[in-house]
Specification:
The chain is built from 5 helices and no strands. By secondary structure, it is mainly alpha-helical.
Length: 126
């Protein structure tokens, strides 16, 4: 069903790992927001909404990362769309949150380069 990660092109595996790290971070942000809403540290409705959406996005991105690791062709599009969203977010936060912006931009670049490496294109063909 899924291709063996040991036989996948290295750039594709690296892109999948970077995508999975982004997914875990997004899920963690959602979990933190939900906990802040429950404990009263933040507005309950807004915190829970952000928490549920971020956790759902994290789970979805983890599925995309799994698809990349399994060399599934469908996973390239959602991975690319997510990175195209993250690049402007990273640039817009450079002045205020450079500790977040630079890792975000680097991870987005790693995924995009990994997705379009010549060996990845051949590995993603269904």
């Amino acid at each position: 069903m899924f291709a063996d990660a040991r036989t996948n092109p290295r750039p594709l595996v690296i892109a999948a790992v970077a995508q999975a790290l982004q997914a875990a971070l997004l899920f963690g942000i959602g979990l933190t927001s939900a906990v802040m809403g429950i404990t009263g540290s933040d507005d309950l409705l807004n915190a829970e909404l952000v928490g549920v959406l971020a956790m759902g996005g994290g789970v979805a991105l983890l599925g995309v990362a799994r698809g990349l690791l399994g060399a599934r062709a469908w996973s390239r599009s959602p991975a690319l769309v997510w990175q195209l969203i993250m690049i402007p977010v990273g640039f817009s936060t450079i002045d205020d949150l450079p500790g977040v912006a630079y890792p975000l931009l680097v991870s987005a670049a790693v995924v995009v380069v990994g997705l379009f490496a010549p060996s990845s294109g051949a590995g993603l063909a269904d």
